[in-house]
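User: quick one, sequence for these tokens?
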């Protein structure tokens, strides 16, 4: 870890006038002290964070030499003669997070001791900010030191309260990680690198974090692609999804459409980035094509020509699609495409499962491939809708806190079918309602990916803790086995909402060790496969899940026949705007924020 700054000890440059005592050392012939008089330096000399050149005058009784302990404090005059002298040095800018000090020794010939001065850039942690958010940072510190899941070493950190609140929080998180990476589970990792911390704070103009937020664009996610393995194969945009109620949905765009022209300009490998950003932003004219693969070769058929896709504000919902699929062997399979656990959609979720129950579904597929999580209460609602009356009162998730809170007896429990919860202590009606709408299945098929995290993984873990079979299809999930309590407070005219990681998510069996994600029972990677409509056999992941649910046998995906299974594509490098469509939902396992 980063060690706390070493203490800066000022060593006096006093001219000692002491009587020489008898000695057997070589210094017997030297005069005591350092002999320097009228020095303009102090014991400790503070310099600018951006660096500066220093000039100190002094009187030397003889020839002298100077040395510096650190390269960033460079001596411009390293020696001089007796009389009026100048000590000149150049101090480099300090671009590190921590303050630093160097010692300069000035040794005069014939004297037993050097004169020592300290050059210091900051005493303790440097004040690098403008100090606007000190009150917010104090609030952050108090909550983190009491509630952060790995809070033991926070009091030992040296922090700069003058920074803005985002940098201040980052300083705490990075500081804690310096203690043998104890907060490893606070963050999304890829190839051994932490891409981001989960803990976050938002102000009155928050970055969108979950389903239910409003956006202003076209409302579609696209994949820049070449329809085949060769560079001369057709280039364009495969539509990954269309948000219900968005301008793209109103224009009739659907998942699986292939866009080959934008504003009558043909998409190529040279212009796809700018044209793709235009498609996402909206107010463009595009053509829409159907794609079918015959013996691995793409066949493109014009579906709609020159459709205008506008730009407007819309709400991104949790529920994208819910349908019942009837199979050739007479089974009815419920399919739910669920993008985020949001309490505003819990009543709609109840209505959908009420319909599933009325239609008598035999199996259930829950598609969480793009679901990064959300409210723990909403996850409990969905868990109850699956599990039903047979598991009423069973533990769905138990929240376990840091050592000090655990020692104080704090814990939280969410139960199947019971509205009482640790967030408010009051009944949450949608959980109770879910019992009457539950399909009461002993197994469920869940589609997951690296985007599947938090409250989504909580569903997998919670159902398995009830001994309900969860057949996971897709790729490894993200591995967020921790959750976040929320606090909100107003400072001046701005509201702040703070969500630090404060608990582990355990199921009824006490299992919480899925920080590396859940391994799929059937591995299916559709990242280079052309997208088909959600919940149909044209979509590779849906195909696998529906086949397994219909037959009861895990399918061999190498022999699965569908449009998408033969449709291998080459995905081009995505722009920041294209990636943002996937990354804008940060999710989590969240509690409702408390006002303090």
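Assistant:
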């Amino acid at each position: 870890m980063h060690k706390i700054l070493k203490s800066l000890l000022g060593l006096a440059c006093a001219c000692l006038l002491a009587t020489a005592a008898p000695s057997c050392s070589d210094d017997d012939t030297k005069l005591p002290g350092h002999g320097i008089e009228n020095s303009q330096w102090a014991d400790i000399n503070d310099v600018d964070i951006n660096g500066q050149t220093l000039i100190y005058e002094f009187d030397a009784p003889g020839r002298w030499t100077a040395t510096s302990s650190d390269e960033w404090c460079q001596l411009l005059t390293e020696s001089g003669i007796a009389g009026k002298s100048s000590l000149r040095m150049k101090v480099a800018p300090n671009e590190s997070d921590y303050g630093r000090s160097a010692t300069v020794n000035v040794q005069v010939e014939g004297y037993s001791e050097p004169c020592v001065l300290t050059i210091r850039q900051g005493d303790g942690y440097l004040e690098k900010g403008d100090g606007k958010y000190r009150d917010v940072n104090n609030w952050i510190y108090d909550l983190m030191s009491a509630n952060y899941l790995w809070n033991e070493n926070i009091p030992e950190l040296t922090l700069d309260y003058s920074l803005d609140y985002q940098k201040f929080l980052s300083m705490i998180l990075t500081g804690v990680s310096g203690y043998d990476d104890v907060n490893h589970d606070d963050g999304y990792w890829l190839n051994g690198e932490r891409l981001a911390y989960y803990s976050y704070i938002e102000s009155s103009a928050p970055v969108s974090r979950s389903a239910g937020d409003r956006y202003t664009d076209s409302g579609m996610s696209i994949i820049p692609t070449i329809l085949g393995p060769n560079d001369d194969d057709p280039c364009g945009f495969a539509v990954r999804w269309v948000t219900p109620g968005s301008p793209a949905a109103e224009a009739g765009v659907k998942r699986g459409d292939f866009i080959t022209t934008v504003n009558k300009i043909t998409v190529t490998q040279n212009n796809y980035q700018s044209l793709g950003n235009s498609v996402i932003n909206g107010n463009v004219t595009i053509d829409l094509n159907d794609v079918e693969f015959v013996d691995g070769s793409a066949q493109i058929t014009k579906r709609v020509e020159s459709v205008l896709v506008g730009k407007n504000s819309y709400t991104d919902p949790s529920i994208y699609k819910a349908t019942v699929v009837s199979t050739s062997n007479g089974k009815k399979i419920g399919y739910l495409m669920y993008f985020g656990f949001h309490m505003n959609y819990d009543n709609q979720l109840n209505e959908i499962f009420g319909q599933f129950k009325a239609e008598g579904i035999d199996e259930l597929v829950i598609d969480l491939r793009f679901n990064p999580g959300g409210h723990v209460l909403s996850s409990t609602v969905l868990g109850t809708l699956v599990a039903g009356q047979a598991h009423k009162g069973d533990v769905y998730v138990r929240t376990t806190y840091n050592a000090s809170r655990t020692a104080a007896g704090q814990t939280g429990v969410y139960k199947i079918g019971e509205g009482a919860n640790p967030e408010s202590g009051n009944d949450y009606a949608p959980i109770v309602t879910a019992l009457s709408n539950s399909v009461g299945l002993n197994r469920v098929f869940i589609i997951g990916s690296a985007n599947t995290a938090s409250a989504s993984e909580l569903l997998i873990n919670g159902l398995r803790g009830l001994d309900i079979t969860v057949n996971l299809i897709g790729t490894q999930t993200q591995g967020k086995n921790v959750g976040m309590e929320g606090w909100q407070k107003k400072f001046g005219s701005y509201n702040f909402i703070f969500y630090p990681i404060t608990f582990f998510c355990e199921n009824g069996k006490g299992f919480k060790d899925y920080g590396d994600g859940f391994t799929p029972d059937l591995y299916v990677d559709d990242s280079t496969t052309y997208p088909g409509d959600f919940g149909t056999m044209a979509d590779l992941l849906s195909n696998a899940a529906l086949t397994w649910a219909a037959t009861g046998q895990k399918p061999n995906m190498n022999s699965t026949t569908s449009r998408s299974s033969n449709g291998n594509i080459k995905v081009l490098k995505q722009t920041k705007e294209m990636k943002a469509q996937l990354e804008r939902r940060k999710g989590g396992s969240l509690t409702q924020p408390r006002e303090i």
